[in-house]
Amino acid sequence: MVDAEQLKGLSAEQLHEVTLRLIDGFAEQQRLLEAKDRSIEALTREVTFKSTKVDQLTHELAQYKRLRFGKSSEKLDAAQASLLEETLDADLAAIEEELKQLRPPPKTEDKQQPRRAPLPADLPRVDVHHEPESTTCTCGCALKRIGEDVAEKLDYVPGVFTVERHVRGKWVCAKCQTLIQAPVPTQVIDKGIPTAGLLAQVMVAKYADHLPLYRQETIFGRAGLAIPRSTLGAWVGACGVRLQPLVDALKEAILDHHVLHADETPVAMLKPGTGKTHRAYLWAYTLGAFEGMKAVVYDFADSRAGQHAQDFLGEWRGALVCDDYSGYKALLAKGVVEAGCLAHARRKFVELHTANKSHIAEAGIQYFARLYEIEREVKDLDADERHRIRQARGRPIAEALHAWMIAQRLKVPEGSGAAKALNYSLKRWAALTRYLDDGSLPADDNWVENQIRPIAVGRGNWLFAGSLRAGQRAAAIVSLIQSAKLNGHDPYAYLKDVFLRLPTQPYSRIGELLPHRWKQS
Q1: For a 10 Å CB count at each end of the chain, is N or C smaller?
Q2: CA-CA distance, 476 to 242, in Å (whole number)?
Q3: Model confidence over 429-448: pLDDT tens digits?
């Protein structure tokens, strides 16, 4: 502050300068106060959000524990009961992992935690040594090794268990008594016994090979250690939480592109309170078939409501290749461009021909065959050349097909099978032929239907999704596995490397672990 005595004798210019400095000082203080208020407000919002989330997860955890450990009158067969139990075990572990990330770490370790049973002594051991980079003390003296800490991790290759003995030597300086030891290697499951390889094996077996955990327990038993399915379920739940940021990044990556495919398939979801299932849906979103990047993201929802597609796509506004399901129509009003599926239109005529050998169906199929012959020729060309050939050769065929359909529709009776087949194409003609005007658009939705097939195969093994959370976790993990396969990667090698690197990977570089960018370390 400036007192009155200091101002005496100052010229007008000096007084003006002092006044400006005071104004600047007051303005700076005001800015600091406002910044502090904003910081406090942001911190308050964060604390409120975390508190609300913790309360929500704690309530959900209590519900799951009642389902898992309480008495139940549900009449489920042995396979259904086993699948439900492993789902609940995974969900419990996932909720506890989310709570652990939200809550601050404890200041002191709980010494009363139960000790884990030692791994079987007959399993072969492999030593992995972790020693300091330098054995010279900061004071210049040579360090002396005085002992070691050993942590055992369970590893697995098909049919064979091994134990990794992580040996961390203790080095001490005889002069200054400084103790140096290599840090504990980071793990996806903190203080857990599974290696990245074993976790990758469990995840790939469950989500790529469709082996429920109770079957994996039996397989592991033949290899010498029957890991309880409750333990396997806890690993699956924890891994699902840790992999979610990677799935979120993959979703952001596909939404950066202009052309997407979309499709959905029903999945039974169990209602634990009744022991019955109801129809849920797995939605699949992939990049356009002609895009250089290969990826698919699945989204599990408890219904087929179109709102789920709107929620997933958010502000995305591009060309969506899809079938005629009404759930996608609301997107069109928001600026999404509809690209129809030529295969669905052709399928109507194939079904008609199969049913009654219709001559109309046969003629229609021949028109579609000519259009697809062009598509086989242009599939490996660039977008401009593909557009040129489609316009020169595909457009005349499409126009002839349209004129033929209109003429035939006037001849067939209302409500007949032929009328329904013709109506499907005529009502959607603009969307069905949009690919002719854009070389980046595929002619049909077959690309995403191919990504749905692994789910259809898996349904015969896992019967149902045990909960909404379990379905969402499965959708996330299968997104990574299927995207890895699309890019030519072995899912086991990919997940193993991701589990090794994920604990120390900065979030700003999480994109390096996405399947289309991944390079094995």
Answers
A1: N
A2: 11
A3: 999 999 999 999 999 999 99
Residues 210 and 230: their CA atoms lie apart, in Å, by 18
Is residue 53 classed exposed, middle or buried when 0-12, 13-18 and 19+ CB atoms within 10 A define those classes? middle
The burial of 322, by beta-carbon neighbours within 10 Å (0-12 exposed, 13-18 middle, 19 or more buried), is given as buried
213, 42, 223: which is closest to 122 by C-alpha? 223
Contacts of 178 (CB under 8 A, 6+ apart): 137, 138, 139, 143, 172
Verdict on whether the full-model pTM lies above 0.85? no
In angstroms, how far apart are the furthest CA atoms of the chain? 111
Query: In the numeric block, which tokens belong to residue 463?
Result: 């019967």
Per residue in 359-408, pLDDT tens? 999 999 999 999 999 999 999 999 999 999 999 999 999 999 999 999 99
| Per-state percent for the chain, helix, strand, coil, to nearest 5 | 55, 15, 30
Give the integer Cα–Cα distance in Å for 192 and 198. Answer: 11
Residue at 350: amino acid letter = V
Other C-beta atoms within 10 Å of 176: how many?
Answer: 11
What is the C-alpha R_g of the chain?
31
* Other Cβ atoms within 10 Å of 352 Cβ, number: 22
* Residue 64 pLDDT > 80: no
d(CA 295, CA 298): 10
Q: How far apart are CA 435 and CA 342, in angstroms?
A: 9
Exposure on the CB side of residue 109, measured as CA atoms within 13 A: 4
Q: What is the rounded distance in angstroms from the CA atom of residue 141 to the CA atom of residue 106?
A: 36
Distance CA 257, CA 319 (A): 9
Element (H, E) at 407: helix 395-409
